Structure formats: C-alpha cells, structure tokens
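Entry for the shared binder. Reason: the reviewer on the internal report wants the predicted structure included alongside the sequence.
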Amino acid sequence: MNLPPPVQAVAGPVEARLRRLFDQEDERWAAVDPDLAAPFEALRSYVLSGGKRLRPAFCFWAFVGAGGSPDDPAVIDAGAAIEMLHTAALIHDDIIDGSLRRHGADTVHVRFAGMHAGRGWSGTSARFGEGAAILIGDLSLIYSSLLLAGAPPAAVATFEEMRLEVNVGQYLDILGSAQGVSRPGLAAADRARRICRFKTAKYTIERPLHLGAALAAPERLGELAGPLSEFGLPLGEAFQLKDDLLGVFGDPGVTGKPVGDDLREGKPTLLAALTADRDPRFATRFGAADLGPEDIADLQEMIVATGARAEVEQAVDELVARSETALERLPLKAPALTALGLVARYVAGRDR
C-alpha cells in the first residue's frame, strides 16, 4: 500500500504495540481454555491483515503539533486504541451488512460459520458465526478502552464521545438502508450527509485529531478543538464520499471488497440519494440483494447519466479545498502541519 511517509512513520509503532498486546492476550487466554485461541487469533489476523492506519496518524500529528513528544508511548497506545475501536466497528458492520469479504479475506462471521459447518457442530452455522463475531467485536471494543487507561480525563472523554458518535452514525446508516431512497431527494441527501459526518468524518479524522491534542495539551483543547474540526470534518466527509464512489466504481482487486455491495445493501449514500431524485427507476432496484452484474452495471450507468457521480466527485474536491484552507490556520507546530497536509492529500486521492 503506497502510504505517505507521515502515515508510515506511525503505522509501524502502532502495529508493534498491537502485536505485543496480542502476544500477551493470546497466551493468557489459551492457557485458560485452548478453544479460546480461535477468537483471539481471528481478532489478531483481522487487525494486522491490512488497514491504512490513517486514524492513528491524525492523532499522532495533532499530538506532536500541540507540543507532544513523538517518542511518547502514550500517543502510540492511543493510536492502537483507535485501531481496536475501528476493528470493532468493522466487524459489527460486516455482520449488519452481511458482507462476505474484508481486506481480501473472509469476514469474521463468515470464518466462524465455516468453522461450525466444517466441524459438524449442532445449531445453525450462520447464527454461530454471527454470535462469535459480535463477541470478538466486543473484545476489540474492550481492548480499545484498556489501551487508553491512564490517559488524561480530557482524552478519555474525547474517546468516549468518538465511540458514541460512530454508533449513532451506524444506527442512522441501517435506518436509512431500511427506509430506502423513496423519501424526497433533498431530505435523503441531507440524511446521507449527516450519516457521513457521524459514521465516518468524526471518528476517522475529527476525533482522532482532538484525541491527540487532548493527550498532548489537555489545557489547550478548548482552543484547539474548533480549528481542528474545521480541518478534520470536511476532510472526513470527503473520505466517506470517496469511499462511496469506490464502493460503486472501485476495482475489487484494489479495494478488497466486491463492487456493488453498497447498491445491494441499499446504503443511504449521497450518490444514491441524488440518483434516485433524478431517475425514478433507480429506486426500483436499489437495495435488492439479488442484484447481478448486469443490474449493477445498469445502476452504475444511472448514477453517471444523472450527473450524481460528477456531483459527488465535485463535492469531494470542494471539501478537500475547505480542509486545506483550514489547515493553514491551525495553531500547530510546522512539522505537524506539513505531515497533516500530506495525509490529507493522500485521503483525497486514494483508490482503496
């Protein structure tokens, strides 16, 4: 993965911290019962199988920019905590969406359903797989809190707010999928952008920035939070809109996920809201689980023909420009500003 140097500089120490955690916990729980090796191994492989480590990078450079030492292990612990929170959200999200693949491998619930079926255990394989994955996601959530033990109260409060916001955004997401795109276009577009903000923008960029500042200079968080939000929120929204584009038009060989899953799941994205408002045919097939390759191609064509794709791409460019302008006003140290600028440009141009 062609990550910018400011992300690579953080990814290595964060992954090393996570490996130490897993080495300790794998041994601890396997000694209690050998059957506990499977869930902990699944969590380890999920966390360490890929991922860009963007969230820890935003946390780290805000920490350094606010006066923290780059050698302070507290910010690496915080980055590892964010990754564990992210993992919990993804594992649960895969269950909710019925996703089969993540990072080019079976999702956790699929993996454990296969284990159940292969060993001829009693009960329903799908139910066992989903139950195991829920618990493994919960383990990841618990470890995210343990990794932040001892952090300043302002940092803990920021992290807890981040956990609340991603759950609120997730609920709005599944509600939007259930409601479909039949509501008036403007209302659907507004809802899509609200979901985008709470499900992704806040916990991907804004809150990691706040967390880094709270760790380095809790007494300055009131001063720094507003400027960091002005930089982080538009960039986070651009990140999700880019993700929506990749979910419909991306290369599965690069993204690691099948193209068209968002269309089958009826994801309440801005792309879908704009298309449904301009072409009534879109809503008749959008969200159908049995969409085949030809159906996906037809929906893709509608998204392009209505101008929805171009409009979302333009929105990404405008949001990134807003973020870049806000970056120039951030009251952070110069090396951190340079690093954050490089990470922001990567976010805007990524293909996975």
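Summary line for the report: The mean pLDDT is 91.
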